[in-house]
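Q: Hi! First time doing this. I have a protein sequence and I read that you can turn it into a structure. Is that right? Here it is:
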Amino acid sequence: MALDLLSRTGAEGVGRRCALLLCGLMLVGFSFAPVAASASSIDVYEFETRADEARFHALNAELRCPKCLNTNLWGSDAPIAQDLRRTVARMIREGHTDREILDYLVSRYGDFILYRPRFTAKTAALWIGPFALLFLGAGIIGVMIRNQRRATRAAGGSTRLPPEDAARLARLRAELARDGADGGEPSRS
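A: Yes, that's right. Below is the predicted 3D structure, encoded as structure tokens:
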């Protein structure tokens, strides 16, 4: 089929050859686009010591990208994450401590930038809330169990079924005993 397209002469053959050539060029161009995009997002940061490089990696793993959800600075290709990586590298080269770098970024972007927010008056609900809900739920369950036991003791130590439920239970037990003696499948009624 391709040879047939290339062998035609005249305006029709030229048009088809141009279309085929254009499709081929587009295919080749699109196949290199992901390679070019991934190669452009690689950042190289050089530090004087291995300790500074380790600090850089630790800070980037601890900091959250402000644009992305649940992605640290290493895992994000967002422009803001690239800017923050450059800022962290610059501040490390300038001799700032980890605490100073974190304080600067928190003052600029808020506690959201930290994967482990600090315990402050603003974040107290984040730290205490889950434990408070757990204790509240355990307390509610405990009160329900205590009330159930009190109701059972007040009823004379046993729970009595209403007459229609007692009759249905007796009927089901009789069917189960009959089907068990026959060795057959229990009937579904």
